[in-house]
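Let's study a protein:

===
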Amino acid sequence: RKVTQSSDYDFQVETVRLLTPEGNKSSVFLNRRVDNHEELGTCTEHYGLVQNADLINRADEALDRRGMTDYERKIYVTDNGSKLRAIYDFKRDADKLVVPEVGDEMGFRLIVQNSFDRSLKVSFALGFLRLACTNGMTTLERELDMVKRHTKKIDINSLLTKHLVRLWQSSTMRLMFIPKLLARMLPNSKA
């Protein structure tokens, strides 16, 4: 199997029905890239295709509408285009949490995932990125995971607008994070 990685996420994928050796319609469908006809995975008629560009563009637009524009975005596309992972690290000082007892400075991170081979559901993970080791290794303290199966009913606008960005901006969410994070990081904390 050829494994590749790139940041080229802006390609279209189509779902086409396969045929049996006798030429009859199969119950299996193929997800393939439109530009180079690379086969990405198989699915059934119930699979709902979510284009990578639509997912990334909607995430960017939702964040921009709420003034959350100070982020660094990295996009990883692997396995010839079958998997996508986008990482948003937010840089504003207002989005950081400092824990003096530990010496950690944590910032928000959002991870967006998608796949065309059924290995990943459409997902958004939100949490604090914190230093895990003095060698610079970091870890994500996940506090919010939203996962949706690829069905015909999936609505990425609803996922982003109603849930993710509204929760992110609420002071309630930040207050929910702090006691949980302190309790994880400080064993004797009463947070």
User: Anything to note?
Assistant: DSSP finds three helices and ten strands in the chain.
